[in-house]
Specification:
The protein is α+β, with helices and mostly antiparallel strands. It has a single domain, classed as YaeB-like fold (2-Layer Sandwich), CATH 3.30.2310. About 40% of the residues lie in helices and about 25% in strands. The chain has a five-stranded mixed sheet. Strand 4 and strand 5 form a beta hairpin. The longest helix is centred in the first third of the chain and has 15 residues.
């Protein structure tokens, strides 16, 4: 039996790139958000079984994950869409915190991983120190 995680979209994620998804995709984003939430509620069952979820680090009872997703109503694959979210999975409180939601076009510079790690370090120092 797997644990159902609570899912929290952090304020920084809401006020930055999620707003762009809402404007660009309208109804498609609402459906996508529900789908992402449903997947994160059962995330432990998906870790290690799906190529679209990557464990970045696992320390001190916290897993930092990167998950690919596609927006409902588009014809792109998860990977091909370039859409990602960064999640802090806190097992002790059974909660998945969505720290960042972005598309590859949001990335500044040429190195996606460096960009999102810098964003996490700046806006979430408690998680940024894990990697």
């Amino acid at each position: 039996m797997s644990i159902e995680y609570a899912v929290v979209f952090e304020k920084f994620a809401e006020s930055h790139y999620i707003k762009l998804f809402e404007k660009k995709h309208k109804k498609g984003w609402a459906i996508t958000r529900q789908a992402v939430t449903a997947e994160l509620q059962r995330i432990e069952a998906l870790i290690g079984r799906n190529a679209y979820i990557e464990v970045i680090c696992d320390r001190d009872g916290i897993k930092i994950l990167k998950m690919e997703f596609r927006v409902a109503g588009t014809q792109e694959s998860r990977h091909g869409s370039g859409n990602r979210c960064i999640i802090a999975l806190r097992e002790e409180i059974s909660t998945a915190f969505v720290l960042l939601v972005y598309g590859k076009t949001d990335v500044r510079g040429s190195r996606e991983t460096d960009w999102w790690k810098a964003m996490i370090r700046e806006h979430y120092p408690e998680y940024g120190k894990l990697f």
